Amino acid sequence: MQRLIRSAVTLVVVIAVVFGLLRQMPIEGYFNNYDKMTPTQIRVGLERHGLNRPYLRALMSFLGNLLKGDLGVSNRYRVGYPINSLIAQKMPISMSIGILALITALALGLPLGVLMARSAISAKRFKAADKAGSAFIAIVESIPFAVYCLFIQIYGTELIRKYIYLPMLFSKENIATWFLPVFSLSLANMAMYAMWMRRYMIDEYSREYTRLARAKGVSEAAISTKHVFRNAIVPLSQYLPTSLVVTLMGSLYVESRYSIPGMGGLLVDSIKRQDNTLVLALVVVYTALSIAGVFIGDIAMAVLDPRIRLTRSQEAR
Amino acid sequence: MKRFKSALAAVLAASIMLASCGGGGGGGPTTGSSGPSTDVYRQLYGSELTTLDYVATGTTVEYSLLSNTVDGLVDFDRYGNPAPALAERWEHNDDYTEWKFYLRQGVMWYDYKGEELGEATAHDFVTAAKYANEAETDASNQYMFEFVKNAQLYFEQSADRLEAANAVADKEAASIEDFYVANGINPDEFIAFDEVGVKAEGDYTVVYTMEAPCTFFLSCLSYNAYLPIYGPLLEEAGSSFGTDITNIAFNGAYIFSEYEPNVKRTLTKNENYWDAENVGIKRIEYIYNADEVTIAPTMARNGEVDFAIIGADILDSWMKAEGTKDIIHNSMPNPSFAYFYNFNFEPRFDAQYEPDNWLIAVNNENFRKSMFHALDRVKAISVYEPYDPQKFLINTITPRTFTMLGSVDYTELGNLNAISSSDSFSASKALEYKELAIPELEAAGATFPIKVLMPYNPATTDWDKECQVVQQQMQDVLGRDYIEIIIEAGPATGFLSAIRRTGNYAFMKCNWGADYADPATWTEAFTFNNSYGFFYTNENRVLSEKPATNKTAATQAIVDEYYSLIDAAKEIPLDFEARYNAFANAEAFLIDHAFAVPFYMSREDGYTIDRIDPFTIPYAPFGVSRYHYKGRVILDKSMGMDEYQAAYDKWHSEWKSLQK
Amino acid sequence: MPTMQKQAFEAISDAASKALAGKPPFERAPYSPEAGEEAPHEAYSYWRSTMRIFLRNKTAVAFLAIMAALLVFTFVQPLIPGQKSPTEIFNDERGIQIRNAPPSREFWLGTNSIGQDLWSRIWAGTRTSLLIAFAVAIIDSALGIAMGVVWGYIRAVEGMFTELYNIFDNIPQTLMLILISYVLRPSVSTIILALSITSWLTTARFIRNQIVIIRDRDYNLASRCLGSPPLKIIARNIMPFLISVITMRAAIAIPNAISNEVFVSYIGLGLPLAIPSLGNLITSGIDKMLEPSLRYQLIFPAAVLCLITVSFYIVGNALADASDPKNHTI
Lengths: 317, 660, 330
Hints:
The complex is a heterotrimer of chains A (317), B (660) and C (330). Chain A is mostly helical. Helices cover 72% and strands 0% of the residues of chain A.
């Protein structure tokens, strides 16, 4: 409960800061043909955007509406359209792609990490798997997403087109068009999960309790699942809720490259167009989501690892 | 690795299954690529509509699309002549202060499903005019009403009313009356909308009364701010007017039938349109793609879409390649928008770029002339237009073909004729003036090289490249010991406010767009109190805490003379020949004294693959007519350059013969 | 693990002495931190072991060589005679710009769309990007580690830091970037400021999380029970554990900063084209990706960028592994 209150305070401070920053945006950005407008037109425009109102008054009325669950209407991105409906239309799309990508990443990344770890601590001849996996991780982790995402789109489309017709753009109805965006989106997480899994598995394998278990005659499989995996999954469990929450925000790159009408890029777009109400609404949503993600992550970690004490003050990711 | 592979397969299968469940949603199957259709026109788009309120919007993407769905009073045909739209005919009184429009009867409004709502009448124009001039609407193009009697006054008063209401709501003022008293507003002076010069006489006549004689009012009418609104719908929708296709009505050639933001939008032919037989294209499909610019060319080549802009980057190779070289053609020069290089007379930039030194230089006419003649505009424009730069170059501020006096182009009138017939670039002249300028500048205390701050907006495609070309080219002509051009990126957001309007540049490309069919529209960038070159003296115009009072006496004398020429021209409202000649002489005076370097006129889309016959497109340097799909014809394949040139020559001679 | 052994030793002897208190034949020794420090040391040099393990990793050594060669070449390239200027526009005999010329003997990697030499632009761009990356990485690591350690270990400030983190983390980076570029104009120092203003948060959080995981481990509990001051626990118990992750973070900060620069260019807030950087070279290359004959303008800068980021990543990781004391016993 106390934590909830403090999260709310954080949220309000974030809103206040962003609100203040938005006030610094250039006035010209609120108008499409600033050069031709008469001074009265500009006055009217500023009035309509609420920019003539005193900072505190404007902030208070925004917070007041927020309490009523009303995020307001968009001002520049889609003039006069309720932001609630805007987000309600876009979020499910980003979410379905994001969750698919997350599932793909987990389903491929975790086994890859386990495989790599076992190959790394095994006899020499199996090391190849670890090497190949490491190379994959190194490539994905180090090359900018923008670059490999682009190459996947160009060459991936060309490759798949040899077998079936594939439009370059995403379409909800055409399943084939889901594959490349989901795949591109999952790679980074896949590599991350594989890397963490490998690292922690190796760490845990060399721990005393594993040695003890082995000495007691517990089977390798049981050691892997009961001891090592359970311990290794702890740090991962903390990230998972956050990753889940991140899917809601969509991916700017993937969505713009494949024309996916999701949340990705909405924030950047609204900032560039200076749609202040939309920026604020998105900041509210994202902040709430990320606080929630961290919260769930901490709980998950504490549940899985009783050694970690979740004290009152301990709640970042 | 085997396990890895099977896991991969499993996940793929799972994701595909999930995808098919999660996908859902309506919408039919996407149109397959069957043979070239002449009924359907498909194109990609990258910027989404921000509003469907066609009266309030000020962006091209919006009014270009929406004006296809709502007919105004007057259109322009493919030769730029006024053509009837909702008004069957019109007349004006002798001194052009009253314009009367007689409407077509029986034209209906429809909703997005094509269901009839009611008849389009004269009242819809009054409703729309009131809506546009109401401060609450915040209409971008409201300034287009400046010629209509009392419209500006009404708008300003409604702004006062709006502010008063907001102040009371915010508890900034105890009551509306208090607000008026505190701000020196007298509510008794408020006028009713009846006093604004737009009226319905009966159901089928609209009358506009002008502030002053206005010969060019027809050209204003073609702007979206003058389009009608179906009254009952506006009343019902209130503030949600134009937020979705369910909240607007259509009476034009097309009905906005499908709108899925960031996915697609569709215009469907209005079968009941009064001029339906001239509407050839049955459906216009817009498919969203954020990277439209890079993807459209390939899709157009493959026949997946019918339109693509071919950017300068790929132009060279596509113009050579089989399969594409025969389908790329140029666009028509568009005289509604023009660029010129401007000198800044009130430098307020950073001390490291030596604003005081620039001030000395810019006040020296020989220095300006050396710059004027040193700029190789062909080279600069070839960044955008490598093959036919002459077609777009202009030697005057007003683009040629913008307006005609009888059969003579405005740019060939009076003293402008000599200027428009020769290219300003001449290395030898530039050096001559440089030799003249050097001793004068030294005497005035300038130091060499003169630093020339030339900013650009990084968000404008290829402007950065142009700057690099111009920098190198001008420095090569004039010598690096004479000028040093410094190119600097301005902020992408709020560029004009940060750079041009605050005098934060020395020499920079600027632009101006025409608003109406009269030479006066092109003087607005240079009038007293403009935010371009600041060559007037005004103690009240403060830039970075310093008033605009830094001209030398010599400069001031030239400026004064220019303003008296402009004022004299404006005093001639009805004698076209005298008026046009007077404006032409004033413009020539400005260019002769090198206050600006004319550059080029709008290239519209530049090189394109476009299955539409470009000469079926309405031609008008102002308003929304040129965006209309009505009358356009889709060809089996996009024109190549040769076909285009032949068709252009034919069109041009027809056009020429119509000018008399 | 010398620290752990030492602590275990201390803990056991302390417990034993408690149990036997007052009983002969052993006298209870008074607690003496100095005496505790006198635990037996192996003949072991941390850095020498690190070096040895690192050199054992052949791939990493190879990439280190590549990285070194790249770095040296990047900075030496303009000094080599016959190199073209990265900003000069080249014209042919007719005075027309040599636009989009494919790679040739004259222009090794071709020219861009206004006739500038891509080869020299790539190296100039690499210089800019590396400069940015190093500056950002230094700020990022210094600020991130300092904040992370304080945040993670000192419970008194933890709550406040967490809230501050949540606040800063939720202010959109794009908003900051736009405002910074509005106030300061796009330039190298603006980009450095813009990129480092938020990136250290991630490092701080990462370090903090590592500390949270380690700080309650048994040996730290033991140390705390034994009254070791926090600074000492941080320096002796926690830092050695962290050196490896810090090394990795610092090494990854460089490819990260380069990626960020690419991202910022992609959304149109990057450096002006007059200052070539890998970010704006790639962004302008992206526009040409669908045209196979022009793809070289994307592929060459992308290849150089990948080479740099991959080698930093691999070397960084190898160094992290090598600097992990756990690996030294093997």
